[in-house]
Amino acid sequence: MSVIRIPPALRSEAGGAREVEASGATLRELLDDLATRMPALGSRVYDSGKIQPFVNVYVDGEDARTRDGLDTPVREGSTVILLPAMAGGC
Amino acid sequence: MVASSLLDLIGNTPLVELRRLSPPGRHIYAKLEGQNPTGSIKDRVALAMVEAADLVPGQELLEPTSGNTGISLALVAKLKGLKLTCVMPDNATPERRALLELYGATIVDSPGREGSNGAVRLAQEIVERDGRYTMLFQYANEANPRAHYEGTGAEIVRDLPRVDALVAGLGTGGTLMGTGARVRETFPGAQIVAAEPLPGDPVMGLRSLEDGYVPPILDVSKLDRKLLVSNTEAAAAARVLLDREGLFAGVSSGAVVHVARRIAEELPEGSVVACVLADGGWKYLSAPFWQGAEIDEAVLWW
Fold it and tell me: Which residue among A53, A58, A61 sits closest to B214, beta carbon to beta carbon?
């Protein structure tokens, strides 16, 4: 099992939870598992096999887009963080 | 060295090796952008954007900024006879606010809990309803990455014989896009690595996903790595940088050094990691983390 951290903007789709658990050996399997159990949350995060453009998904602190996307391996006990895309830069 | 204008002293910042923080056999070099005239890398961006906009004296600029870009724009605006209004989150540090006012800028507050996104949104609303303002908008202005391509990046490849990785903070994406492109032209195998702030819950506030924002100048496909750094990790690294190297740098620089050390450890012996330290620690002096207190997760520090 891995822990998925949910940002405030998506907690209503996760029943208010700050974190949920899901299982899978890749990010795709993990998000599929999440979408099966929480369909509303799943579709906000990824749709038609792609991560939604305004969502960043991090596996152990690294953006999945600069790794192997949905094929990024997920280890037992990994932490996955979902974040809305935000502008930084002062 | 004698310059005829402070603007001529923007750029050409030094690189210094972080010998005490580099893993054995690897070399981390820090580019000290805090040595620009207003103390940050944004001097490069401000000058490039104003010159590209071809404004006439008396025109008014308005920019969403939580500090550094505003201070840089304020200097450039002053020397070019332009007026400047900055839209900034109301929880930015007092030093940055005071500096902006001293440089002559007008400040409009945006809700701190909405972070930079909130400042961007409010600035866009103001510009839409008031035609006297020109927004240079660093998030979408091609002069931003170009300043780094022609300046920051060109200086790094001029000064270092080898670069295996470039690490910089991710904000607008300007530094990483421009510097990264220039570094990769000379050193095609170099990894371009982003250090990205992990926003605390309060920073994300009540915004919905649809309020998310990806700066138009940022192309994530040009990055090889993109790593989250918490405020706590960034502040700890900023302290280590000061304690071990005597280098007083800002929070984003702490994050960049944190990532640079990790990347350097992954690379083979002899590797060179260049990292860009965007500003000095002065504008964060009021923040209690320098004295060992926990850093405020409710603030987006860069």
Answer: A53
pLDDT for B136 equals: 96
In the beta sheet, which residues pair with residue B190?
A: none
What ipTM is given for this predicted complex? 0.92
Residues 6+ apart with CB under 8 A from B243: none
Task: Supply the pTM of this predicted model.
Answer: 0.93
DSSP three-state, residue B24: coil
User: Is residue B185 within 8 Å of residue B41, measured between CB atoms?
Assistant: no
A54 CB neighbours in chain B (<8 A) are 209-210, 212-214
Q: Chain A to chain B, count of Cβ pairs less than 8 Å apart?
A: 108
Tell me which residue in A8, A85, A88 faces B212 most closely, judged by beta carbons.
Answer: A85
Tokens of residue B37, six digits: 């005239």
Fold of the CATH domain B6-35+148-291: Rossmann fold (3.40.50)
For A2-84, CATH number out of 3.10.20.30, 1.10.10.10, 1.25.40.10, 3.40.50.300 equals 3.10.20.30
Q: What is the CATH number of domain B42-134?
A: 3.40.50.1100
